[in-house]
Specification:
alpha+beta, six-stranded antiparallel β-sheet, flat
Length: 1901
Amino acid sequence: MAAAAAAAAVGGPQPPQPELPAPGLALDKAATAAHLKAALSRPDNRAGAEELQALLERVLSAERPLTAAADGEEAAVAGGGGGPGAAEEEALEWCKCLLAGGGGYDEFCAAVRAYDPAALCGLVWTANFVAYRCRTCGISPCMSLCAECFHQGDHTGHDFNMFRSQAGGACDCGDSNVMRESGFCKRHQIKSSSNIPCVPKDLLMMSEFVLPRFIFCLIQYLREGYNEPAADVPSEKDLNKVLQLLEPQISFLEDLTKMGGAMRSVLTQVLTNQQNYKDLTSGLGENACAKKSHEKYLIALKSSGLTYPEDKLVYGIQEPSAGTSTLAAQGFAGATGTLGQLDSSDEEDQDGSQGLGKRKRVKLSSSTKDQSIMDVLKHKSFLEELLFWTIKYEFPQKMVTFLLNMLPDQEYKVAFTKTFVQHYAFIMKTLKKSHESDTMSNRIVHISVQLFSNEELARQVTEECQLLDIMVTVLLYMMESCLIKSELQDEENSLHVVVNCGEALLKNNTYWPLVSDFINILSHQSVAKRFLEDHGLLVTWMNFVSFFQGMNLNKRELNEHVEFESQTYYAAFAAELEACAQPMWGLLSHCKVRETQEYTRNVVRYCLEALQDWFDAINFVDEPAPNQVTFHLPLHRYYAMFLSKAVKCQELDLDSVLPDQEMLMKLMIHPLQIQASLAEIHSNMWVRNGLQIKGQAMTYVQSHFCNSMIDPDIYLLQVCASRLDPDYFISSVFERFKVVDLLTMASQHQNTVLDAEHERSMLEGALTFLVILLSLRLHLGMSDDEILRAEMVAQLCMNDRTHSSLLDLIPENPNPKSGIIPGSYSFESVLSAVADFKAPVFEPGGSMQQGMYTPKAEVWDQEFDPVMVILRTVYRRDVQSAMDRYTAFLKQSGKFPGNPWPPYKKRTPLHPSYKGLMRLLHCKTLHIVLFTLLYKILMDHQNLSEHVLCMVLYLIELGLENSAEEESDEEASVCGPERCHDSWFPGSNLVSNMRHFINYVRVRVPETAPEVKRDSLASTSSDSLSSLQSSRRPKVLQRENSGTAQVFSLVAERRKKFQEIINRSSSEANQVVRPKTSSKWSAPGSAPQLTTAILEIKESILSLLIKLHHKLSGKQNSYYPPWLDDIEILIQPEIPKYNHGDGITAIERILLKAALQSRMNKRIIEEICRKVTPPVPPKKITAAEKKTLDKEERRQKARERQQKLLAEFASRQKSFMETAMDVDSPENDIPMEITTAEPQVSEAVYDCVICGQSGPSSEDRPTGLVVLLQASSVLGQCRDNIEPKKLPITEEEQIYPWDTCAAVHDVRLSLLQRYFKDSSCLLAVSIGWEGGVYVQTCGHTLHIDCHKSYMESLRNDQVLQGFSVDKGEFTCPLCRQFANSVLPCYPGSNVESNLWQRPSNKSIQDLIKEVEELQGRPGAFPSETNLSKEMESVMKDIKNTTQKKYRDYSKTPGSPDNDFLFMYSVARTNLELELIHRGGNLCSGGASTAGKRSCLNQLFHVLALHMRLYSIDSEYNPWRKLTQLVEEVNSQQGNEEQQPEVPILYHDVTSLLLIQILMMPQPLRKDHFTCIVKVLFTLLYTQALVALSVKCNEEDRSAWKHTGALKKNTCDAEKSYEVLLSFVISELSKGKLYHEEGTQECAMVSPIAWSPESMEKYLQDFCLPFLRITSLLQHHLFGEDLPSCQEEEEFSILSSCLGLLPTFYQTEHPFISASCLDWPVPAFDIISQWCFEINSFTERHAEQGKALLIQESRWKLPHLLQLPENYNTIFQYYHRKTCSVCTKVPKDPAVCLVCGTFVCLKGLCCKQQSYCECVLHSQNCGAGTGIFLLINASVIIIIRGHRFCLWGSVYLDAHGEEDRDLRRGKPLYICKERYKVLEQQWISHTFDHINKRWGPHYNGL
């Protein structure tokens, strides 16, 4: 009901309206306005003001007939509810009149605009607008420019890009707070305020009176229209209705803002004036409307959970005291909560549906500083209430645009920003409730980014309105609404709460606008400093961050696979990155100098406090709970990053900001847990948790996240490692990775916490982690440029990269507001230093390459760093890829032939603060581990890989490189066996420990182990020497009686150390009893008993290394100390030969370094080498192992067999590919099977590619060629001018298709049909220029019955093919080329042609007779054989290939003439296209493959067979007209009423040739062929002469007539062009052909002086096209080769090749074309007969007679349109171009590259009978083939019939990359090579073969 009332209120006027002004007044608005203006201009204007007020009251309230009766309501809704009613329009008219003060409104607008000081552009745009951003000119990274300002400014050489606005924005041109003045455009450069005159007072006087009422009226509307949405029904419909009705009013305001500065300042006054607001809206007057409206306003406030301070009584609650603040917090968190109401029910239901019902939500009682931030709103001006309603209505676009359009006014900007901040909490509440949160988010950011990007403004608001407090509080409140109890560590008693990532708030990124604003303001130094100084804020912020600490906890599934894989992890990563990391980077960017130390101390202090609270809340003591991992530790990362900054930039002493040891131990636990979990995930231990856990592991290291996630974690671990006891740290690592039990010298052991199959990869993981930890220097001393270089090298080593993917993969400072990408300048310079650019190439096979960067050789040589690569790979395969590329480089450069190991790379020196990190390398625990692993590898224990050895050696080498000062040899020699009791090694220095021999080791082994079976002390054989058991039970080190055997327990050590520290640091810690310990650590009962054994070892690390060297090289005594030969080595140790190599090289390098570091080691190495080492005995093989070995062997053999088969297959395929075809390189010579028959074989033999049998094609079992039939209009696109057509890029440029070949032929045919007999016309021309059928083959043949069964199998095959079997489409079974028909091969021999080719010596007259007889024989269709059926069906296919309109040209539909014309035109089309593929001439001879793979011979047979069914009446056969003189008895008197036949001179000679040949029985005899050609040449030559005579002017004609006549009686007059020409002229002069020339014609004819040479050239050019086609035809029919020649001799070569030239012809004197003539009857007689026909036609139609004469054909080869160099020119013109049908700008505009037509892709406006425009156009323009450039994507799309594919782009950026969808928006330039390839594929009709990804378009494009 309320809604209806509101609609009525806004809707139509009711019939009785007494308040309307009298009609007279209404008509004379202008006079009234003028009168009022005058009244108001008087000094005493009170009367005028009152009069105006009364008028406004009337006019504006006339719009709101509130007292409508209930029955009138419906009518109103029905009547005026749709559009704005008449009353509204009336009111707007009044307002316009009053503003203009009696003048015209338009003049008024112009007058106001004149006073606009246009210093700022301020153009506001909405989503999807194309704008620009220039990083060179921007001060704020959010800076953007409209296209106009961008192009008017000078940005050459700048780092700019074009982008599609996501949320909307505004142009910053002219705003020096946001961008540098150098980038302003021409319009906004001048500070124009000085010279703009002052605004006259009376101009805007009326506005000041009228606008307040108008805006108030708008606000009343908004109040009326708003109804609180009922809980169940979303009320968007109602809101939208109200907004639609208000459209004109808001648009009116928007227009006012566009009038410029003067009007904007009036509006600002109106909007911010508090007095006006108070007077109008208080609702205290006697006006009932106003009262009611005020009540609605209060209700709206109340329902928003806001109080209106002065109206406390409305609510009936007292001042909210501190006690109610918790209630307030809860209430606001409810969905529609008014105060004190808890979660509303609908939110609960929502919970259940997300499967989170079981986790009850947690509410915190928030003791934020200021409750009023959240709940109190007081409006004091129109602006404030307008914003309130804008938010209430969820930011309607029009309102947003109006509010933003006002921003150029400075005073307004400040007022609006304050208002916005005041409403911030309310915005957040509305956003949370909104159904359209995405749209709303965009609109909010659209506003806020304009306000907060300005540092000055942000600072002011921060000071005056507590902006920071508000933002942090609002964020905290927002997140509090979705907290749940954390289950990390102690599930039952945990007090910690975390956000629930399954909530819509996080899943949909609803928090994004608020966080984005926060990041934006933190990018301003003055604001960030306030934040960092305010301790209260820091505490609150850390509180906020701790909500994310430990979110999205993963628990390892141990039994069955998890049922439901939650995808919430992405929300969690996004939330940590956006809500925690980005603000952190923003703050860090202001802590760069020494003066900012205090800030760091603050952050670190509160961060540690928050961490301590967190450890307490989750009840953490010292052991993490097993099988849990969270990737989210933002507090740890804050702490780490501020530490790093403090040391790197602020010169702070690290120890002054570190906590005590106990805290460090706690800090390292969770990051270390993550590293161990990564190894577990990669070892497939989490496989039951589904794929998402892998997704988390990848995201954690992925480029956008890594420097906010894994990098700080590793850095924090490095800090902890450098300050904690190294033995403790190392043992913690191995314990976390669960491989302690593996580190035993016994050959068997038991692992209580890890399955055997995971041990190896976990051990690799642990060692790799240690290597990364010890060798990574990202935060430990590398400069920014070094980091960038290392990152770049790592990425390039994995794969060649494009420029954009490198930019994307290299972790930049993730705070987008931190300004420019880390020195884009340094990015480019580093890139050019480390990489070479590989230009984009087009690979055969159609795949388009982008421009790539590849590492330089010296980078591989010196900078390849496997550690960095391992750290940065998301997929493990990338590490392999990097190693493969490294191997390839070494092979290629000859540095190392084998399989190299990852090279060891020298590291940047450590920053002094972190020196302690290297103690890890010099601690006994690590040395024992290294010793044990070396021993186990030597002994071939299971579960050890090359990778383990590699990492062990890497660690030893790191230790040697980073050893402490050189130890003196004397001191070393002192340590004898006495000191050996306490442990394995005497000291902690690796250098001295390396040479320390270990004799006996006591191990705990299972009783089943081989060690137990023997007397262990006696065992001296090196068979099962093994050692070091770390038993799992915490126990003290035992000392054996002899002191020789050592037992070592990692766990015990660690437990002891931890206990000591805790005892030392706090007495209470002792009371913490750990109930779980015993159960966790004792081995499960099922395990066999452990027993102690003592092993004899007698090795040192050095001796193990040397033995490993022998083992790896497989030779005895392979190691020989190099310094014995070359003492130099010790002096300059950097030897390149050791840089690259495998394990042997690595060991040699290590031994050399060890010898260098101490003389003692050198001596020991020499000693070990002297002793002859006993051979390492082979392993004993147990039965079980034997079994597995057999299995392996069998597998290996099977693999080899498979390889052999594959290789054989590959070679067969290769040889086929070489012989058969190669679609992609049409240059290679490829012989075709068809022509391979040897002369002695009588029949052509074909291979069927399906059944593999060979044999001739027979009537019963015909063989066919695999062919593709396609309609083509390429020929029709030839033009006759050399100037290539350009794509239109302005309104003036248009392309008209008048001069295309297709158009010219069309005009000619319709002209002939107007004047001549239809059947005769259809024999005089060819069609098929448009929509002709082109036939191409891959050259493979198959039996037609085999093909049918093949098609049947395809039809049953349900696999998604890219083609449609129902349409007969298939792929060639052998070469997979696309095809759609089979062309039967005519049975018969290849050799018969040789018999037929023998020249007979018959005279030409005899031959002419024979030809006539043969043509006269009716062609009976051969009997019904399989062959004839196939011929018929293929003919049907050919017809159906093209559309009906391209086949039917006859006036009588269905006439046989149509078919006749169509059939010989198919032959013509194929010949003409082949000519084009050969480049338009035959100079290159027989080299082109087009001929080799041609199917013309077969096609001719099929066509001839069908043509012979139509016999031409012998009377009408043009052959007679050519070869006989007809007596002119009844020339044309008798049949006046009938239309005459086409004169023979108007016939197209090439068409005649095809008709004559196809009418002959096949196979054709060579002499008949030559005869036909000779006869037709005479006609052609005469046509040439006629054309020449028409071309020249009257004097030339009479001169030639005269000279020719003189020679007429010479002997070879018939072969002299002068004589013939003069005869033609004299004959045609009898008619009216030459008469019509008026003066206008003469001007047209070029005044060339015709020399004999130029005439000869004209005649030759006229005849050449015919000769070329004829030669091609002869080549195909008789298999004769085409000779190659120079262009100038093409005519003579072809004519002799065709037998036109007498063989005895001498070539001394210049060649004369007329010498080829061989007249069958006296030349002059026949010519006069031909001319007579023309004369009789020109009697009546002289004009047309001339037009129809066949002109010299000047067709150039077809080309696509020429494209402009820069893509922007196309984009700017077309992306705003409107569609001609619906005049809107299409969503996906496209342009045809063949003819330049602008089309809408998928546009529904242009759809015709279910065909969208692109598909329709492709049929009309290309007979089914369309090539379109998609304007908004820069990509080319090909439509071929019913399929389409994306071809790629011909525009690339400066780095040779495509920019599909213009995402990057960098300038793009044409790539000529690619465009050439596209054009080539179009002309050669190979789109189907080369492009692979086709899909059906269902006519929807």
